Amino acid sequence: MRTFIAIIVGLVGGFVLGIALSSMIGIISVTVFQNPFGIKFLPYYTAALCAVLVPIIDAKSESKRKQ
């Protein structure tokens, strides 16, 4: 159950992180190059990445707490 919650948190957090990162890239590119550009589907990529990384990090921290 703890792993499932970590995956859900990773998905939601990664998606929000991807939206924020995509917006930041767009703002910087307009400022520097006067033309907006970015990475297509960045929120989905970061959501998938965080859905994998958050349970791994949680498992490592849980094993350190038990020692």
Structure description:
This protein is mostly helical and 67 residues long. The chain has one domain (2-62). It has helices at residues 2-33, 42-66. The model has no long low-confidence stretch (mean pLDDT 94).
Q: Average the pLDDT over all residues and give the rounded result.
A: 94
Residues in β-strands, percent: under 5%
Unreliable runs: none
How does the helix and strand content classify structurally?
mainly alpha
- Counting DSSP E segments of at least 2 residues, the number of strands comes to 0
Measured as a percent range, the helix fraction is over 70%
Distance between the termini: 22 Å
Shape: elongated
Number of helices: 2
Secondary-structure element order, N to C: HH
Question: Key features?
Answer:
mainly alpha; 67 residues; 2 helices; elongated
Brief characterization of the structure:
This is DUF5957 family protein. The chain has 67 residues and is mainly alpha-helical. It is 85% helix and 0% strand.
